[in-house]
Amino acid sequence: MPIHFTALATETVRRLQAGGADANHMAPERHIAQGSGNPCRHCLSMIPEGAPMLVLAHRPFPVMQPYAECGPIFLCAEDCHQGGGADLPAMLASPDYIIRGYGQDDRIVYGTGAVVPTDRLIAEAKARLDDPRIAYLHVRSARNNCYQCRIDRA
Question: Which InterPro entries does this chain map to (predicted)?
Fold first, then answer.
């Protein structure tokens, strides 16, 4: 089964880059990227050290409900091209990640979450998306549970 790593929508990112309110109704914070651990959820690449970046609250769900987690993410402060596709994004550079399945109702499908080594991420995503109960997956940091990107059926 082909899969697709899905980045945040360009329209959403451009609004945030222009100072629009985040999920907590606040303007994104502007910072300078330090080190190599600042993944942009739009271009799906690491923000280069010394480049301007945004830190903001993001809720990757269409409506509020008990499973609609909100947390911090990074974005390039300047325009970047939307990433995504079948290949593992460059920003997924940690040794492992949490993947978790969600149903059409945007709620966790229990029993589908796991910490997965990065080199097994694509295979594990395909296996989970074989389950008809799962509409999509989230990739999250295994250390801090921060949202990274979404995986959909291609």
Answer: DUF1203
111 lies in some domain:
yes
For residue 98, list its beta bridge partners: 115, 140
Any domain includes 18: yes
Alpha-carbon span 53 to 90, nearest angstrom: 17
pLDDT in tens, 39-55: 999 999 999 999 999 99
Residue written as tokens 């589908």?
Answer: 112
Q: Is residue 88 part of a domain?
A: no
75-127 per-position pLDDT tens digit = 999 999 999 999 999 999 999 999 999 999 999 999 999 999 999 999 999 99
Can you list the alpha helix ranges (DSSP code H) found in the chain?
10-17, 121-129
Answer yes or no: is 89 within a domain.
Answer: no
